[in-house]
């Protein structure tokens, strides 16, 4: 029997290879599957199913479990998180304004995009020295309290990769996970300190970091002692906003 005639009837987009890749992802939505199970569920020829599953794994849309079965990959959750970005941005404005007013420091929300963290919302100090980072600014994932937060809860492989050439250590990230916030002093930029806390989506995945930043002269060399509680409260407010239906 030909591959086309054995494939279950589905609505076609007219782009065959994308349709077949979608069949595989649809199958994996139910849970991990061996290659034989993929072939049976999708009706694709074994070489085709294997080739597409491996290609999807290359793009992190598919992964393998400890038994070697195919499963949905980490890129799927990243894309799902990004789908809620508009809600995060709209909720960030009032939360950051309040955070800035309470601390007297500029406040930001960062999301991870590949090897960078990007500022998606910001509230700057209205008077005096402005330490804000404009919306759209790309910063390194190798330094700074927001980078620590966005790395600390990654899966093991990405965490190990994130520690390579970074200014923070595995011990520091363990402390971030334990206390629920991060601080940095001159880590990203000389003379600047910051405090950050994680923002989570409805499934509990860390998808963003809310931060305040300013000169060490104001924030001191222990900025977490001054502002961790209020930064964590802001992060919880954003988390609640993302979980609200």
Automatic annotation (TrEMBL):
Domain HTH iclR-type: 15-74
Any single Pfam family the record assigns to this protein: HTH_IclR
Residues annotated as domain IclR-ED: 75-244
Name the record gives this protein: IclR family transcriptional regulator
InterPro entries the record matches: GAF-like_dom_sf (IPR029016), HTH_MetabolicPath_Reg (IPR050707), Tscrpt_reg_IclR_C (IPR014757), Tscrpt_reg_IclR_N (IPR005471), WH-like_DNA-bd_sf (IPR036388), WH_DNA-bd_sf (IPR036390)
Keyword NAD carried by entry: no
A biological process from GO: negative regulation of DNA-templated transcription
UniProt cross-references to Gene3D superfamilies, sorted A to Z: 3.30.450.40, Winged helix-like DNA-binding domain superfamily/Winged helix DNA-binding domain
Gene Ontology MF term list: DNA binding; DNA-binding transcription factor activity
């Amino acid at each position: 029997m030909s591959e086309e005639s054995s494939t279950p009837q589905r609505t076609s987009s007219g782009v065959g290879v994308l349709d077949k890749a979608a069949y595989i992802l649809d199958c994996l939505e139910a849970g991990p599957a061996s290659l034989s199970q993929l072939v049976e569920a999708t009706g694709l020829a074994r070489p085709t199913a294997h080739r597409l599953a491996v290609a999807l794994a290359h793009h992190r849309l598919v992964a393998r479990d400890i038994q070697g079965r195919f499963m949905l990959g980490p890129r799927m959750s990243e894309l799902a998180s990004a789908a809620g970005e508009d809600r995060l941005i709209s909720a960030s404005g009032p939360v950051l304004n309040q955070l800035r007013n309470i601390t007297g420091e500029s406040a930001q929300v960062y999301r991870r995009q590949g090897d960078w963290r990007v500022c998606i919302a910001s509230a700057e100090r209205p008077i005096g020295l402005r330490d804000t980072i404009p919306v759209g600014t790309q910063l390194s994932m190798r330094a700074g309290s927001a980078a620590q937060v966005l790395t600390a809860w990654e899966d093991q492989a990405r965490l190990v990769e994130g520690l390579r050439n970074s200014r923070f250590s595995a011990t520091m990230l363990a402390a971030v996970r334990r206390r629920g916030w991060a601080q940095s002093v001159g880590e990203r930029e000389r003379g600047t300190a910051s405090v950050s806390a994680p923002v989570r989506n409805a499934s509990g995945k860390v998808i963003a970091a809310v931060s305040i930043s300013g000169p060490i002269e104001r924030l001191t060399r222990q900025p977490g002692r001054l502002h961790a509680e209020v930064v964590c409260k802001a992060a919880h407010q954003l988390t609640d906003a993302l979980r609200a239906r």
